[in-house]
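INSTRUCTION: Work out how this chain folds

Fields: amino acid sequence; protein backbone structure tokens

Chain under study, with its fold:
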Amino acid sequence: MTEHLHRNRRTKIIATTGPASSTPEMLAHLFQGGADLFRLNFSHGSHADHAARILMIRELEKNFGRPIGILADVQGPKLRVGQFQAGRVQLQTGQEFTLDLDPVPGDLRRVCLPHPEIMQAAEIGGTLLLDDGRLRLRVLRKRDDHLLTEIVQGGMLSDRKGVNIPDVVLPIPALTEKDLADLAFVLPLGIEYIGLSFVQRPEDVAQAKAIAAGRALVMTKLEKPQALENLNAILDLSDAVMVARGDLGVELPPEDVPIAQKRIIRAAQLRGIPVVVATQMLESMISAPAPTRAEASDVATAVFDGADAVMLSAETAAGQFPRESINIMDRIISRVERDDDWRLGIDAKRPEPEKSSADAISAAAVQVAHTIGARAIVAFTKSGSTALRVARERPDCPVLGLTTTEATSRRLAVVWGVHAALTDEVHSMTEAVESAVKTAQFEGLAKKGDEIVVVAGVPFGEPGTTNALRVARI
């Protein structure tokens, strides 16, 4: 296997594992095709399935000599109606319909909604969405044990379909008993990110971070309007963020979702935390070997917006064309990043450096690299913060993130423009420059005669001390 594998693009790709991608051979194809980080979806599959995939991914790391990140995406609360006597009913617009706590199978007049929290939080005149928003109800009356509603948009409703309440904050924690059990299982196995669903408040993120206790970073999934109302406070606590457009598109009007996507990406960039755009990116490729033109444009838009990564879900987890999905996503990203308008847009959106030595050095490194035409910026980074700060400036050359810590190298797999590699401890700037020159050559990022920019913190080994910059010639 090649030891010099690096992407000719800045935006990263996350691939979801599943039945279609659960062999070492397919995982290797997906990694070679462009996957930088793999997602385990704990809404599906057993603990044994996920443990086996983690082992395969770690073996893949050894074979390719490259760090690979793993995202464990926990399910979060799933609010669903109960069952019907006939398995389904046709609800007519304008009729009344009751949601109650009675477990008896439902009919045209009522069905069980086994969530008293919803009865508590619902408001008269408020909206309930059923089956991914296909049916819409308006609350007419509420009691402790039932809600009387009017059917505003009717349709077929079958057993166990989902319920969304877009108007209110529900008194439900983001982590369920199942999620806690899943985290207790997966955290000791070594993962890089927790995907946190159903976030409504900053407290939801704080709870997940307390459970992770540094063993993994928290990637907050923004999929509820309530989270957007608390966006700044939530992002201040998050290590990374995902624009989870599936549920977000159910609870927000469709015309608001693209605006929310741009707002979230911009807010994450200002903080220098990775931001992922996810859901339905190449949805048609679940069953077709090529995407629609609209899907190709959707991926391109996320790249133009400056997202750190884009994600494939069912396309690689359960679709018929996982390899083709990765390959076309890689091609779309690479093509966009060769376009002059992409670079102009990225430069125009570059945030002002914060008033700190770390930001000043990072901004200076990008400027120096641009002026001298450096082949790479080499960032020595113990915790990942230096590489994140340089990536926040969106340089026009690759960032080589050098770290002594395996966990940090894997966490950087989702960060825009960063090619992570392990290095030995260095104790002086002279040693750092020697290591940077050697590794940049070894990783295929620079060759003899090229110049690189080296960024580090002195004294070495102390996180958050970025304060030194050197230019070196190979």
Notes: The mean pLDDT is 95. Residues 88-164 form a domain with the M1 Pyruvate Kinase; Domain 3 fold (CATH 2.40.33.10). The chain has three domains: 12-76+173-339, 88-164, 357-473.
